[in-house]
């Protein structure tokens, strides 16, 4: 989940999702991330307002229940909810009552038996609320977006009642599997039906979703090679007034492309006529497709000439076909054959000469005069080729199953029995799901059979049936005992199908063949047994592509499926899974009857005021899985580190993995704005960013095996929370014994039970997160591997594999080493010792020499930690970063005991950390003298600590107030410390408000046991005010700049525009904060509210305003990091970063420090604020010269605001070059 100042998590983006959400990524209750509550509530506002008493109701609704629809069939008009009998598991008795889950658009459940549905007054109240809600719902129109994007369910129902023998074509060609069905002309009645929702799509988001859906549908037919169905669907859209409005030339081109593959020129001629009659003009792709067809069926010259003349008269040139069009398979050769039929001497246009970035910050870097050979890896061409094949095989399988680190535990007879039982059940489930899928597809293929899922039929034909079953089985196997949000699972299932479909498209278009061929030559740049080459990876790859000439284009334009489609496909698969997978009730207790019961249940739960639909496994299944203690884990291949160097980024849509689709920029909440911005950006402007990402991704890694083995031994022996190794669930707090029925429990008992449950869920989530990381590390323990990188919308970089990477916690970082070793050199051992002291957190205020002296004083402890980590004095355990400290102790021990420490080959990364990096950028922007001194931009003998300085300033304010008799100032005497103010000072630069700051300070004061509790609120309110005043006084220029950025963003957002800017490296940035509207998906199990992507949404003024200062500073710190990465490459350094923490070998720390300072000075020597002002004036305030209309009042205000750039102080930037503690 991304906050304005936070790092982007792996899920928005293109990360791979396993079912559990690590708490390190986002707050989780019962394994459900907070973003789900925010984005996928299906409760109405009124219902939310009326639901307080969270804990009590969570307990009430957290029980397992059988959905009546699931048990009784899919179209029962009246739903009954009965008390569910849950099978006893071993000796534990599960006697949980059932509360009816709210069901919109359905009659109120009638309870029978003695279940809670009858007895609970709250359940009755909920039923009453739901009845009132239904009456309201009947009066409202269904959501326009879901109607349009997903073929108007409401309309289909109405028409199925009136006309049971409705034309099958109107129901999305349900007979697409039948070659005998003929296209029919749509009658006036159909047109009248389609006119009904015509007034709705005024909202452009609906039109956008509809357009995307039409394109996805047509691409489905293209992949299935069904031109008749594609054309029928296109003409159906053409006859609909609503859909006709969103039909563009791209839709026609897709259908023509399918006919071109078949060589049917007469069909293409006909479509040319239809599109022109629709007011559209053929574009370059249209002519390319026609020429492909003519090349394929070897048309006569006369016909080809007619099309070429039409191409010229449309203002195009033949050469542009090869320069601008994207081709699949042998299409390029077909076009060339057609052209040479009428112009035998025609030659392909030469590839364009490579463009060079004009960024003033990189003139030296891109200069051919200063170009050096690209550094080689310690691998031969043959070895790299073998590694590429291993990576390709892994990606072609889509998933990889590896052994868990828990496999080392001895196997019990109970586990052997449970595993055998699970194996048998899974085999049965596989067959049951396959049968259910095939039956469902047969039903959909019947021409007159109408269903809400008929629209999905082509999407269920894209892959072999077995693959859909594998995807569903993977989700079932990975489901946690706490369950998972229905929306998350639906999205995951839909996305997995989409990812496999894209892989199949790449195989079908022969793109993979070409990538293989080019990668084989690309490794000459990296292999040690090939000639040195003066190219960057991107440049060399582009050169090889240009030389390859023919074959498919590597950047195929894939239409991503709209979110509503992914969700509906996922919901369909989920319903199939829930209905098909059953287990005998007596599987673990033979005394019970043997009737089959569902393995999965759909339940509702409340978190805060949000209602969330969950899919939960039956306790019998959870117990069986727990007993089996299985030791295999399955991951998507893109969750694993790469086994070969990544494919270099050459554009915004090509790079990273060999086959897996990866976005250059991680997107949030389905927004498409960044993608559009990147597509419109001249490719040369992205070169610096792409080259920096390639440089980070090309760093090879290996595992620190001794440290990993120690961590695994503790992990398998009950963990250790102090050392950040989560304990297993067997160590979870035991819930108090609850007597009698739940209705007799006291509030405090319910609350205690809820807290136990919450703690257990958190422990499970943390434990699984650690298990994933350690198991992946153990899998690659003997391998060299790579982390491909991409970035968030601000340009901050992240490794693509989401679980195990160097951005992880202390445990993860401690087990990573550079694969390349370098001698320590004369100062390397000293840097290792200083790095160790930095990791302890003990000498932050001391000079580097004092830190080194301290390390030498405690050498005995360091060597003891290295030799006896778990049995010695355990000095390393009492440090800030214990595992990294232990790894460093071991490295120092090995180096200091070697015959010549300077010649010792070290693989160990040494870190240099920015000193409150956000404030450093602010101080440099404002040339703020006092601010610069506080954050170590000015040379000084000792490191300056801005947090202590602010605490000192706050203490002075407090003393003055105390002398004047201010009571709270007197109470606070002796309680103001660095720790109390640190978090607030750190986050002020990232836009924390006084409200947020007060909560931070209150939390710190609570940790002081002596502080009187009754003064907490008043004291935190007083202190946050003084902290803000201190920062204002110490960083006057910083506050001026922050206020200018905030006010500018506020005025821009109020004018209805989103805030955009371009970084000094040329990366375009747009803030993705909008007042989002939702589409309601009326799926079988429940209604889902899904956020709409929309290029015309109104901006969220508050978020745009508050987020601009921190996001702008983040874009600058990422620019500084990228500049450092590129210039370190030129100096031959290994370099990686964790945002403002830079890593390199001990040998090259001094060189990296010099480069880092040079690039900071170079960056801030640019007119950053002035350039920003000019860019925004041009973008938001410029009007056409011919316009004589008066300037609006808001525009005048915005012009004044943007023109009034804050004045800068007297600080001399060049002083940074001599500041030891700028990064240290």
TrEMBL record:
The protein's UniProt keywords, in alphabetical order, are: DNA-directed RNA polymerase, Mitochondrion, Nucleotidyltransferase, Transcription, Transferase, Transit peptide
Any idea which GO molecular function terms this record carries? Answer: DNA-directed RNA polymerase activity; mitochondrial promoter sequence-specific DNA binding
EC number assigned by the record? 2.7.7.6
The source's superkingdom equals Eukaryota
Skewed-composition ranges (Pro residues): 725-738
Q: Write out the biased-composition intervals (Polar residues).
A: 170-179
Query: Which family is annotated?
Result: Belongs to the phage and mitochondrial RNA polymerase family.
Protein name according to UniProt: DNA-directed RNA polymerase
Q: Which organism is it from?
A: Cyanistes caeruleus (Eurasian blue tit)
- The gene name reads POLRMT
């Amino acid at each position: 989940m991304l906050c304005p100042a936070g790092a982007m998590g792996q899920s928005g983006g293109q990360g791979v999702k396993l079912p559990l959400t690590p708490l390190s990524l986002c707050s989780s209750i019962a394994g459900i991330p907070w973003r789900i509550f925010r984005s996928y509530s299906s409760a109405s506002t009124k219902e939310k307002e009326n639901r307080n008493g969270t804990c009590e109701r969570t307990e009430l609704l957290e029980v397992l229940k059988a959905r009546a629809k699931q048990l009784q069939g899919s179209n029962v008009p009246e739903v009954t909810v009965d008390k569910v009998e849950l099978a006893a598991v071993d000796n534990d008795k599960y006697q949980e009552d059932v509360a009816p889950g709210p069901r919109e658009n359905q009659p109120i459940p009638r309870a029978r038996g003695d279940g809670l549905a009858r007895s609970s007054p709250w359940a009755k109240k909920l039923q009453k609320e739901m009845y009132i809600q239904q009456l309201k719902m009947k009066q409202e129109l269904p959501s326009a977006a879901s109607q349009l994007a997903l073929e108007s369910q409401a309309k289909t129902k109405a028409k199925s009642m009136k006309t049971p023998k409705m034309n099958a074509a109107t129901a999305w060609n349900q007979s697409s599997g039948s070659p005998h069905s003929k296209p029919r002309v749509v009658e006036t009645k159909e047109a009248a039906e389609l006119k009904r929702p015509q007034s709705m799509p005024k909202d452009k988001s609906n039109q956008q979703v509809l357009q995307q859906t039409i394109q996805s549908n047509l691409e489905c037919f293209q992949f299935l090679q069904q031109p008749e169905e594609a054309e029928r669907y296109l003409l159906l859209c053409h006859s609909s007034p609503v859909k006709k409005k969103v039909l563009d030339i791209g839709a026609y081109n897709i259908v023509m492309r399918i006919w071109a593959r078949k060589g049917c020129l007469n069909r293409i001629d006909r479509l040319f006529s239809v599109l022109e009659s629709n007011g559209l003009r053929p574009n370059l792709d249209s002519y390319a497709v026609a020429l492909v067809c003519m090349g394929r069926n070897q048309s006569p010259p006369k016909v080809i000439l007619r099309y070429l003349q039409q191409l010229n008269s449309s203002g195009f040139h033949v050469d542009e076909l090869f320069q601008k069009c994207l081709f699949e398979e042998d299409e390029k050769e077909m076009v060339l054959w057609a052209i040479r039929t009428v112009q035998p001497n025609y030659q392909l246009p030469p590839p364009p000469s490579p463009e060079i970035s004009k960024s003033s910050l990189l003139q030296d870097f891109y200069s051919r005069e200063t170009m050096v050979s690209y550094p080689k890896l310690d691998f031969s061409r043959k070895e790299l080729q073998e590694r590429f094949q291993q990576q390709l095989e892994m990606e072609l399988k889509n998933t990889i199953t590896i052994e868990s680190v828990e496999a080392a535990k001895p196997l019990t007879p109970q586990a052997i029995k449970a595993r055998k039982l699970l194996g048998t059940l899974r085999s049965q489930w596989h067959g049951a799901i396959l049968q259910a899928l095939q039956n469902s597809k047969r039903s959909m293929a019947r021409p007159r059979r109408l269903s809400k899922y008929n629209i999905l039929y082509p999407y269920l034909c894209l892959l072999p049936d077995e693959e859909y079953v594998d995807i569903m089985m993977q989700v079932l196997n990975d489901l946690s005992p706490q369950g998972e949000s229905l929306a998350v699972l639906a999205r995951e299932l839909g996305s997995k199908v989409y990812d496999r479909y894209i892989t199949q498209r790449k195989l079908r278009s022969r793109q993979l063949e070409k990538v293989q061929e080019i990668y084989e030559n690309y490794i000459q740049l990296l292999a040690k047994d090939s000639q040195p080459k003066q190219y960057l990876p991107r440049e060399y790859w582009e050169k090889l592509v240009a030389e390859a000439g023919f074959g498919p284009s590597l950047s195929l334009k894939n239409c991503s499926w709209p979110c509503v489609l992914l969700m509906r496909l996922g919901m369909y698969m989920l319903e199939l899974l829930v209905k098909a997978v059953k287990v005998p009730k007596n599987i673990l207790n033979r005394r019970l009857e043997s009737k089959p019961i569902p393995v999965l249940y759909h339940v509702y739960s409340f978190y805060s005021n949000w209602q969330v639909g969950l899919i939960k496994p039956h306790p019998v299944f959870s117990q069986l899985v727990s007993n089996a203690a299985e030791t295999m884990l399955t991951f998507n291949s893109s969750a694993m580190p790469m086994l070969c160097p990544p494919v270099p980024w050459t554009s915004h849509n090509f790079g990273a993995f060999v086959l897996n689709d990866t976005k250059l920029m991680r997107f949030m909440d389905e927004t498409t704005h960044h993608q559009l911005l990147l597509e419109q950006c001249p490719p040369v402007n992205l070169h610096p960013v792409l080259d920096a990402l390639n440089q980070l991704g090309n760093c090879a890694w290996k595992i620190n095996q001794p440290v990993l083995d120690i961590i695994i031994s503790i992990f398998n022996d009950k963990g250790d929370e102090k050392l950040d190794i989560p304990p297993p669930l067997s160590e979870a707090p035991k819930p108090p014994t609850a007597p009698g029925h739940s209705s007799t429990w006291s509030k405090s008992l319910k609350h205690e039970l809820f807290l136990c449950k919450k703690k257990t869920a958190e422990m499970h989530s943390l434990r699984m997160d650690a298990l994933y990381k350690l198991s992946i590390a153990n899998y690659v323990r003997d391998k060299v591997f790579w982390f491909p990188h991409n970035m968030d919308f601000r340009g901050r970089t992240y490794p693509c594999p989401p679980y195990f990477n160097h951005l992880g916690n202390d445990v993860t970082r401690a087990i990573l080493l550079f694969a390349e070793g370098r001698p320590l050199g004369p100062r390397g051992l000293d840097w290792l010792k200083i790095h160790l002291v930095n990791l302890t957190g003990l000498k932050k205020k001391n000079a580097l020499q004092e830190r080194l002296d301290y390390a030498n004083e405690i050498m005995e402890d360091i060597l003891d930690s290295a030799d006896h980590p778990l049995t010695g004095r355990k000095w390393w355990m009492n440090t800030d970063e214990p595992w990294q400290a232990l790894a460093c102790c071991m490295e120092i021990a090995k180096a200091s005991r070697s015959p010549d420490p300077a010649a010792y080959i070290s693989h160990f990364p040494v870190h240099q950390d920015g000193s409150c990096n956000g404030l450093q950028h602010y101080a440099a922007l404002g040339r703020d003298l006092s601010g610069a001194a506080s954050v170590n931009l000015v040379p000084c003998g000792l490191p300056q600590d801005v947090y202590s300085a602010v605490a000192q300033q706050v203490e002075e304010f407090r003393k003055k107030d105390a002398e004047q008799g201010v009571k709270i100032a007197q109470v606070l005497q002796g309680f103001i410390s660095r720790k109390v103010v640190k978090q607030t000072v750190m986050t002020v630069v990232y836009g924390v408000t006084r409200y947020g700051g007060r909560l931070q300070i209150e939390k710190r004061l609570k940790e002081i046991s002596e502080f009187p509790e009754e003064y907490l609120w008043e004291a935190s309110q007083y202190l946050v005010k003084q902290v803000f005043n201190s920062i204002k006084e110490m960083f006057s220029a910083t506050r001026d700049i922050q206020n200018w950025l905030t006010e500018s963003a506020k005025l821009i957002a109020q004018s209805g525009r989103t805030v955009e800017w371009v970084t000094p490296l040329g990366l375009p940035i747009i803030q993705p904060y909008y007042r989002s509207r939702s589409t309601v998906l009326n799926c079988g199990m429940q209604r889902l509210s899904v956020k709409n992507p929309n290029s015309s949404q109104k901006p969220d003024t508050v978020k745009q305003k508050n987020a601009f200062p921190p996001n702008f500073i983040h874009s600058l710190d990422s620019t500084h990091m990228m500049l450092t990465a590129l210039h370190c490459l030129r100096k031959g350094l290994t370099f990686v970063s964790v945002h403002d923490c830079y890593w390199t070998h001990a040998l090259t720390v001094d060189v990296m420090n010099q480069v880092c300072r040079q690039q900071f000075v170079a960056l801030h020597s640019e007119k950053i604020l002035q350039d920003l002002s000019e860019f925004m004036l041009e973008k938001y305030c410029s009007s056409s010269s011919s316009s004589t209309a008066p300037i609006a009042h808001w525009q005048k205000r915005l012009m004044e605001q943007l023109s009034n750039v804050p004045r800068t102080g007297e600080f001399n930037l060049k002083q940074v070059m001599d500041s030891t503690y700028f990064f240290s």
